[in-house]
């Protein structure tokens, strides 16, 4: 049985994605009141309709007053049993046609078609959806009008378990991912009900978040919620994040989360294959390691503790401890009051550190290799997820350098390029001053034009732009053996060779205006004083930035599972 | 060329593991002074010997005054070049015999044999060691007496790069892991020197830590450091942890670290294969979730933040967000002033959560299966590491139940066993009160005797012993669908089914004396109010406990890379 074809695909189906204030409660206070009023009105309407129906049935005009199917639907109890074999929607195949199966799923849509038939869309695991049909018209079936009505009235995003016969529809169902089969429901139990109105509907959750610029303005003005953008309801990033269950149920969110895990897994897989050993640096540390700026402090029994800003020192301790190559994946913390789409106060770092045998470019090339492994893994194994994200957040393919043609500029070459070919405001940039974000973006555009890549390395940063542990270039002590990696003109990795001899480290600490014996730094230098430590280097990658810039998303906050910013600590 | 066979293997070789105060500085203040005095004396002795030698050479009795090999040794510079191909000790094979190779390694031992020959032990990557020989006697070789002496005097744990010819010794070298080859050094450069005295020598670092009971007594008395136990120098746990580079260089430490990573990797591997998706819960949260006990608090811009005590709520949010099965690996924090070998203030949790289809035992069986996968993976793939650990920390093989014969007791059955067959002090234990650690251990011993397993499940904990989110057993509401997993009589996992209906959750929160609208709890319940959430359950495993109890180590602090306790925040 096929539902009459719909004219609009799911994300814009008005039944699924009601206007603001209808199926979705708006998040502004004004909107919330409106929605409440509307919901009340509708509940009243439904109550009256039910009364009329009951009267009609009592007068004998509408069918039996006794519900012959009452065992086949309703709220589940712990004695409810459905012996049919359970299947997952992704497994549905020709072999199931005509068979009775059990499916556990969310109600993505439910509506009556006349008085005797209801259609539901059932969703399972991300975006596997199938059409369900229930009809009281067929004789001999354990389906009553009351049952049909109850199913047709199920709230969106309720969780149900159904028993159904698998059938082939007369024509493919366009509105669901499973188009070649439909489920003819004979039992349906409510496992977990959804509320009357959703804080964020699946339709809005599945669309791009409202413009961040617009949102910042609103946030300043104290307004939050849905905005009507070219006639389509668009939810703000804040609305998404305040409704985590619905935000995460959107296929685009699950695709982004899947790509994020893939980046982490590909990182670990490549390093394991190259004899790197994983370890876990601590988050709680006894002293602020780099002068104390932007560090979270907390009372710790009778002392004070700090949250680690990076695993830097601990990666180096592992090398001092006899590991040749190490990596770690874990949270790092920055108490920086930066409210930009690039910043979070807690984020996952992908870090590695390794012994250098001859030249620090061994490390740089290892980092390039692991990132290229990640990019290639994504573009081959996650094509479907990438396309799904692009259908919501359009982007151009991420351009990679040709094999063996990696693009590596020195910092000085980058500044020279900016001076000669960049926008006029950068005609005086200096070789011994760090780059600003606008400079980075302008250089990214120049590199893309010149070398046809969105991924390149900026090497040999000036000493002034790097922390005290960076190794100066022995041939030119004003620059360091340190680099940043760029994606679409934005930094995603910082790294380099570290000073491994205690006297050189002490000298550089002093040159930076710090004291090698101050708390936090002393314990670090002590490790290099305590044993011989071979030359080594590494780098740290911001996981969420890699994903955000690879997919050209408007914010890292759309990538992180639970983003933390100066203004956001929940959910 | 073979060194005369040594009578003692490495860890007890007196040349390698000098008595306290010689090669190792003792950590007690008294010991430190003694060591300093001794070091001064020896430096003076060496200076005098060098003077004598110089005089002898000047008088023509000892050889040429000019050092013909001075380019072949000394401190490395950035222009030093050794073109020979580099090899790693683990790769050394017959094909290298007679070839000249480059090796980068630590000096594990160095000593003169007469005036013209020196022996070194070179160590690379964990416990790969090889014997190196350098001799000024052979004519035509670029080796001078001065060079031999310089090599023979290298400080232990310095890092060097050598050029050497690979030779087969006359008989196998017993003192090194590589016994079938030795290296005849022709060049040797110091890359990173070690200090005159080590804070912890490799010998003591490679032995078991001093008795923890003894250490606690000392700690109370304010004494720390090496203790002489049955004639062998033994370093305390504190000494180990205060000397991270040397502690970690010990083969036993590296084996424990390797086993720890293996547990994590096996956990992730099994879950990925069973369609679990990884995610990252936040560490910074906006409210103390379970009443505020034992939680770290910190200033967060204008607000207050808390460090997550578990990923519990976030795992459930993922299920609410449409994931069927999730897992995470990351730090959790407990502000508990517990100074025991089982506790840390920060530890890595291995957590999972999954939808329940029919019965919560699906989750329990999944957790059993992942742990059995880990145990089997360890016993087959990490046999060598386990034996190495056992050579230092003896233990009996970890007993597993036979396939399909997993041991599962209810809490009530466990208490009954304790009452009937346990020690007299447990003859009155109650079914509705939580177990103490001594009870757990006594029960573990009884289960081992009765069922021949060190791994079993205790199911159906009383409501009083579980948090508010635990699902009561519908057939007996005084107990929960919640369990602990035990290893060698100690808990390593807590888990169970969670309440998924908001009204049931609110009722239980009230029954526990909490307010469903208090900060931290409201945001949690709101998620279950916002959408329908299917039944689900999970569990959390303490990574360090699994490793410690599997290997029967005296403390989790020997497992964690950088343990954090109320008294320890560094390194």
UniProtKB/TrEMBL annotation, chains A, B:
Its EC number is 6.1.1.12. GO terms for cellular component: aminoacyl-tRNA synthetase multienzyme complex; cytosol. Residues 1-66 are annotated as: Disordered. GO terms for molecular function: aspartate-tRNA ligase activity; ATP binding; RNA binding. SUPFAM superfamilies: Class II aaRS and biotin synthetases (SSF55681), Nucleic acid-binding proteins (SSF50249). Residues 33-54 have a biased composition (Basic and acidic residues). It comes from the Eukaryota. GO terms for biological process: aspartyl-tRNA aminoacylation. Keywords: Aminoacyl-tRNA synthetase, ATP-binding, Cytoplasm, Ligase, Nucleotide-binding, Protein biosynthesis. The keyword ATP-binding applies. InterPro entries: Aa-tRNA-synt_II (IPR004364), aa-tRNA-synth_II (IPR006195), aa-tRNA-synth_II/BPL/LPL (IPR045864), Asp-tRNA_synthase_2 (IPR004523), Asp/Asn-tRNA-synth_IIb (IPR002312), NA-bd_OB-fold (IPR012340). The keyword ATP-binding applies. Coiled coil: none annotated. Its main location: cytoplasm. It catalyses: tRNA(Asp) + L-aspartate + ATP = L-aspartyl-tRNA(Asp) + AMP + diphosphate. Residues 259-571 form the Aminoacyl-transfer RNA synthetases class-II family profile domain. It is found in: Cytoplasm. It holds the Pfam family tRNA-synt_2. PANTHER family: ASPARTATE--TRNA LIGASE, CYTOPLASMIC (PTHR43450:SF1), ASPARTYL-TRNA SYNTHETASE (PTHR43450). Belongs to the class-II aminoacyl-tRNA synthetase family. Type 2 subfamily. This is Probable aspartate--tRNA ligase, cytoplasmic. It comes from Mollisia scopiformis (Conifer needle endophyte fungus).
């Amino acid at each position: 049985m096929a539902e009459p074809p719909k004219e609009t695909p799911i994300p814009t189906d008005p039944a699924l994605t009601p206007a603001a204030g209808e199926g979705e409660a708006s998040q502004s206070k004004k909107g919330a009141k409106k929605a409440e009023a509307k919901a009340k009105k509708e509940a009243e309407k439904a109550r009256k309709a039910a009364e009329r129906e009951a009267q009609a049935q009592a007068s004998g005009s509408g069918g039996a007053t006794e519900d012959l199917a009452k065992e086949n639907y309703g709220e589940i109890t712990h004695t409810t049993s459905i012996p049919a074999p359970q299947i997952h929607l992704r497994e549905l195949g020709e072999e199931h046609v005509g068979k009775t199966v059990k499916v556990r799923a969310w109600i993505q849509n439910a509506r009556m078609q006349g008085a005797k038939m209801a259609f539901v869309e059932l969703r399972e695991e991300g975006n596997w959806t199938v059409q369900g049909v229930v009809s009281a018209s067929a004789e001999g079936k354990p389906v009553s009008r009351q049952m049909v009505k109850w199913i047709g009235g199920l709230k969106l995003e309720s969780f149900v378990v159904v028993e159904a016969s698998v059938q082939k529809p007369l024509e493919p169902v366009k509105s669901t991912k499973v188009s070649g089969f439909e489920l003819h429901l004979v039992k349906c139990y409510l496992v977990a009900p959804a509320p009357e109105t959703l804080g964020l509907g699946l339709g809005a959750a599945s669309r791009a978040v409202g413009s961040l610029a617009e949102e910042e303005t609103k946030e300043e003005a104290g307004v939050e919620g849905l905005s009507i953008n070219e006639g389509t309801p668009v939810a703000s990033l804040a609305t998404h994040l305040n409704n985590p269950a619905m935000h995460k149920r959107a296929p685009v969110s699950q695709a982004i989360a899947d790509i994020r895990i893939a980046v982490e897994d590909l990182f670990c897989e490549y390093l394991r294959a190259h004899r790197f050993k994983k370890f876990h640096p601590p988050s709680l540390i006894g002293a602020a390691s780099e002068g104390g700026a932007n560090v979270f402090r907390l009372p710790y029994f009778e002392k004070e503790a700090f949250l680690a800003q990076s695993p830097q020192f601990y990666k180096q301790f592992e090398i001092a401890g006899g590991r040749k190559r190490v990596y770690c994946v874990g949270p790092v913390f920055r108490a920086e009051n930066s409210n930009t789409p690039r910043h979070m106060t807690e984020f996952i770092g992908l870090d590695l550190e390794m012994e250098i045998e001859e030249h620090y470019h061994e490390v740089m090339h290892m980092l390039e290799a692991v990132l290229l492994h990640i990019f290639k893994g994504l573009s081959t194994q996650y094509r479907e997820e990438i396309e799904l994200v692009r259908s919501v957040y359009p982007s151009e393919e991420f351009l990679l350098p040709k094999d063996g043609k990696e693009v590596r500029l020195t910092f000085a070459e980058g500044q020279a390029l900016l001076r000669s070919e960049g926008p006029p405001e950068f005609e005086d940039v200096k070789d011994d001053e760090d780059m600003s974000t606008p400079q980075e973006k302008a250089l990214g555009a120049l590199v893309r034009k010149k070398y046809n890549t969105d991924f390149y390395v900026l090497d040999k940063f000036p000493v002034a732009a790097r922390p005290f542990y960076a190794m100066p270039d022995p041939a030119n002590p004003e620059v360091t053996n340190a680099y940043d990696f760029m994606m679409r003109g934005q930094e995603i990795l910082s790294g380099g060779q570290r000073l491994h001899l205690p006297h050189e480290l002490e000298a550089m600490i002093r040159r930076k205006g710090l004291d090698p014996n101050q708390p936090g730094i002393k314990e670090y230098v002590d490790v290099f004083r305590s044993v011989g430590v071979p030359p080594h280097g590494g780098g740290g990658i911001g996981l969420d930035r890699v994903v955000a810039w690879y997919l050209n998303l408007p914010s890292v906050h759309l990538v992180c599972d639970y983003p933390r910013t100066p203004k956001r600590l929940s959910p």
